Amino acid sequence: MYSTEDMARRAAREIPAGSIVNLGIGLPTQVADYLPEGHAWLHSENGLLGTGPFPYEGDEDPNLINAGKQTVTVLPGGSTFDSAFSFAMIRGGHVDLAIMGAMQVSAGGDLANWAIPGGKVMGIGGAMDLASGCRRLIAMMQHTTKKGEHKLVQRCDYPLTAARVVSLVITDLGVFEPTGHGFRIIELAPTVTRAAAEAATGAPLT
User: Annotated catalytic residue: which of 37, 45, 60, 198?
Assistant: First the structure.
């Protein structure tokens, strides 16, 4: 299986040089640690472009945080701006790639990542804008819930963030592409068999 570090390293391989990339809250923020300096421009919807790896302990600047309220670094040439400008970038189609967490992804590429029915915490944040406005979206997530329930499904039964937007899914079991009818296996993580991946997926694998 992939560790979270393996997943972040694998996601970093999907980032084209020179692109503008938004890393969602949670697992995706780790991707920054596996990008060569200057490879891409990392965007945070609270108003940062050019965020770098997480700072070492003792080097944190409380004025430099990402959308998840984590302290970050800013690379040379980076910039800060207000939220209105940041969301204008997103809605204007200027973010090349978003890597986001997900609660469910459907075989058709639908994304559900903001609410669990009956849950106490709901908040869509910038996810709806990013999912609709970015040029490409990758979901980075655990393959199943802690209870073993499917998160890659035929159809989402959680409230959707956006429809038909996910182009690739990276999980602890491997890398998968929504095809409309199911998910195509791009690669399986070490020690993961096809049978194990099929049992953990709520849609056909090809």
Answer: 45
